[in-house]
Amino acid sequence: MIEVRKLVKTFGRKPVLRGLDFSVPEGDFVAVVGPNGAGKTTLLRILASLARPTLGEVRLGGRRLPAEAGTVRRILGVVSHQPLLYGDLTAEENLRFYGRLYGVSELEARVERALETVGLRPRRRDLVRTFSRGMQQRLSIGRAILHEPLVMLLDEPHTGLDPEAAVMLDRVLGQVTGEGRTVVMTSHDLQRAASLANRVDVLAGGVMAASVRRGELDPEELPALYRSVTGA
Can you name the CATH fold of 2-75+149-230? Predict the structure, then answer.
């Protein structure tokens, strides 16, 4: 579903990604971890067609980026650590607005289902500016799944969440991945990444320095592997 070959991204003279190779089979859940400044957010922004690669080849669902960005965006659901919601609209109005942008069929039923999935149905008519950080993040997940995307990209979605909201997000991610979607999530939390994903990739030095599938390594050994390849 995702194919990245020899990806290079530079900002001015500063290289961030240095010939990175990365692939994700359809229906897989991959967590990308790495130290601050490793390029995790840059990689996701390129996959989401929000940034252009300097060099290299990027394909999602067989479509090339950035040349076919318009087509790729229709199969993407994106969640960042900034919810990017309209505070003066209600929860359901936010979802309805984005659903219309995507041309979602049976929109009202989809809005109901998304609100139910993220546990916000009781607050559906409340203004989003009255929501906690955790509730806003839940709604952003609801927006991301509204159009039933084939691929979900999540950039450190647990950042700033209280424990209760983080547990809710984990439950929602488990449900989403159980539906067969392809998921890439960046994270600073090694334990959470190992518990949620089928594969953990370590980004360091601008390349994927290590890749471990669930069951190949005891979760307690993951920090030692992380330190060995990142020095962090």
Answer: Rossmann fold (3.40.50)
